[in-house]
Amino acid sequence: MTQDHELHEVLLPQPASSTTNPPSSISASISKSTSFLDGLRGFAAVLVFNQHFLGGYYPVDFGRGFGDNGNHLFLSLPFVRILHAGSAAVAVFFVISGYVVSRASFLKLGRSTFWKGLASSTVRRPFRLFLPPIIWSFIQAMLLHVPGLMEHGFFRMPEPDVWLELRKWFHANVFFFSPFRTHTHRLWHQYSIVLWSIPVEFKGSLIVYALVAMTALLSGVSPLLLLAAGSVLTILLLFNAWWVSACFIAGALMSWFDTRIPGIQVSRHIAWFLFVIGLYLLCEPTRDNQIAYSANAPGWGVLTAIIPARYHDFDDDEYYRFWHSVGGICVTFAVLHLPTLQRFFDSKSLRLLGRVSFMLYIFHVTTIFVFGDRLARALSLPVASQLGTMVLSELKHMTGLGIIDFHLRLLLFWALTLGASLVTAYFATLYIDDMCVALAKDLAALVNL
């Protein structure tokens, strides 16, 4: 899940000879703003925050679907559960990234600046993706040695002294960000559970850049034929559990459709249908290694049975990635073709969320658990360690709070913690993320890219 500042760049055609100018219909689409994708990404980042917040401070297993095992919680209802569907948001992040990182290059196809622009994007990408989390992991390594600050058992124990911590931090980053190792959501960075997606994002970006280069080499082939071939490839990857590659390529295909085949209009009825279907699929009940959570949920029995067998090869570890990927593809495609949704996600507040979404994603878990137990005690709410064996029916006995009082205090707790996370993300964007983006551009300029 990452913020890409290329989304904000205005990509206008440069003066060129008639032999290199794209068709006028394609030129017209160049000025089309896609800033609403920032809003969609910001909204998705809040879903990840909600999942981790509720997972730490609400005494209910949100993995179960509504009606499963006596669960009738409002937040478990289909469509409503999207509000805390953090795992599903990851698929949306990857589809958006596939769209964004390919769009600038597709718009330059046929121009003399195409290959230089593609090389520049490829060189800048690892610096843009890896530097912010490396800096953040250093900050967290140092925070571990501030007495009493990171008291939550969620954090790893600090090394005996700072120098040993620095050595641990260095080796952790060299190992974790190596492009030659396997990256999944089960192999965490030693200083953060959410950084697993960053190297996955990088590998997905490389796949997109390779795909973009292939389209340039196949410039004589019909754009519709290339779209069809890419669609078949996406389906094959998705059914063989290569869901990350499928999401990135699907996003790139949407970009290809919008920039190279602009004459085809998508029916709004079809787009709305895809949006509703996609939203439902993103709400699949989930729990690692617990496919029964999906199979036993009303409305999900048949859909669970359809999940390809390849997703069960690792003890059902990520069975939900199949439908989440399909849902993420459907929702992103629908947003790209529905002005109503574009206006919603293009609102100032959501675009601001998009602006800080990368830093919110990286920082939020630490912010939740540094502030969490302290705020919970201040509001007379149970701390995270108490919730491990607690169920909602025991709430009054343990805390003395009624159900309504508990939920009102929890809502205030959520708002304060989200606010603290957003403020942290805002300043981190200014002083870490923006700096890393500028540095990546400077390094590319040094090699004349």
Structure report:
62% of the residues lie in helices and 0% in strands. It is an all-alpha fold and 449 residues long. Helix 2 packs across helix 13 and helix 2 packs parallel to helix 14. The longest helix is centred in the C-terminal third of the chain and has 44 residues. It is globular and about 70 Å long.
Comma- or semicolon-separated keywords:
single chain, 449 residues, mainly alpha
Q: What would you call the structural class?
A: mainly alpha
> In terms of per-residue confidence, which ranges show pLDDT below 50 for 5 or more consecutive residues?
1-31
What quaternary form is this?
single chain
Task: Report the biggest beta sheet as strand number plus sense, adding barrel if it closes.
Answer: none
How confident overall, as mean pLDDT? 84
Tell me the radius of gyration.
23 Å
Count, helices:
16
* Percentage of residues assigned to helices: 55-70%
Q: Could you write a compact summary of the structure shown?
A:
The chain has helices at 24-30, 36-57, 86-107, 114-143, 162-176, 197-217, 223-239, 243-260, 268-282, 292-295, 301-306, 321-336, 339-345, 348-378, 395-399, 403-446.
Note the topology.
Elements: H1 24-30, H2 36-57, H3 86-107, H4 114-143, H5 162-176, H6 197-217, H7 223-239, H8 243-260, H9 268-282, H10 292-295, H11 301-306, H12 321-336, H13 339-345, H14 348-378, H15 395-399, H16 403-446
Helix pairs in contact: 2-3, 2-13, 2-14, 3-4, 3-6, 3-8, 3-12, 4-5, 4-6, 4-14, 4-16, 6-8, 7-8, 8-12, 9-12, 14-16
